Amino acid sequence: MAQFIINLNASLPASQRFIIHILDSTHLFVQPQVAEMIRSAISEFRDQNPYEKPA
Predict the structure, then answer these.
(1) Whole-number Å distance between alpha carbons of 31 and 36
(2) Cβ–Cβ < 8 Å for 4, 42
(3) Cα distances (Å, whole numbers) of residue 27 to 11, 30, 44, 54
(4) Could you give the dihedral angle defined by the CA atoms of residues 15, 16, 21 and 26, in that order, rounded to the nearest 10 degrees?
(5) What residues have CB less than 8 Å from 50, skipping those under 6 apart?
(6) Cα-based distances in Å from 20 to 34, 36, 48, 50
């Protein structure tokens, strides 16, 4: 998910980027006002990529 958030951040214009600092491969500091937007984007991503158990 961290890589998804990093890619989401990179897809925005420089003035709208929200990552403050990347701590490591799984932890990021982001601006608090974008938390809901990130949750929404992750939810949408998960809805588009459902897991289906192999037959």
Answers:
(1) 11
(2) yes
(3) 19, 10, 21, 31
(4) -150
(5) none
(6) 12, 16, 28, 30
Q: What is the pTM of this model?
A: 0.82
- Cα gap 10→31, rounded to integer Å: 15
Digit-by-digit pLDDT tens for the chain (55 residues) are 999 999 999 999 999 999 999 999 999 999 999 999 999 999 999 999 888 889 8
Rounded CA-CA distance 22/55 in Å is: 39
